[in-house]
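Sanity check

After download, print the first record. It should look like this:
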Amino acid sequence: MPQDIKDQVLDQVRASPVLAIQLDETTDVAQCSRLLINALFMSGNSVKEEMLFCHPMERYTKATDIFQVLSNFFQENQLLWDSLVGVCTDGALAMLGLQSGFITRVKEKSPCAIGTHCILYREASASRSLPAEMRDVMNLAIKEVNFIKAGALNSRLFKQLCVDIDSEHQALLFHTNVRWLSKGNMLGRLYELRQEVATFLDSQQKADVHDKFQFEGFLLSLAYLVDIFEVLNAINLKLQGKGGGGGGGGGGGGG
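Expected structure tokens:
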């Protein structure tokens, strides 16, 4: 069945007058590097998007290695370089290098191909560049969440506190850097449970963190960050939708 689906997709790609690809190289939880490539092509009067292939990168992940994997796939499946008109990447140096980058090598095969930098990566990169004051607020928020969630006992005690006072939620949320939306979700939940967190920190005699958390300036800055990341998350999700133009390698946008 998988082979039949692959053959159907390849038949449609071959029949399309133009082809664009989106690619990303990432490392999974097993520390295996994988190259994922999506294809956009014409099917009748519409544009379709399908996963073209996923290939393990067993050794290096340089531009030459990535290009070789793609070149071999094109050759093995009789795909024409002349039909390739667009390549969307994460904008890493290995992809965009002027002399030996992946895009440069692709253009040697298909001069008409246009290289683009995935807008989702740009948006995610921008969200990491916070002013010093906001960065301090973010770090303190992360410290508070980690204190409560890092230990099983603290997690249980905080959950019981939320149950006792009939809170809307009973747990805080972690965030991970590879899941771009998770930071906004973490901040939003922390702000919604700010009273419960303050009470818990006080009960655990974390005076230093408690005092900073109760400071009006911190809460105002936290609310500001919540609003900003809420907008970023909404934009991110819209870009990932059909026709959103988010580009390749969403990389776990739905954290």
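If your output differs, re-run the checksum step. Summary of this record's structure: The first strand starts at residue 19 and ends at 27.
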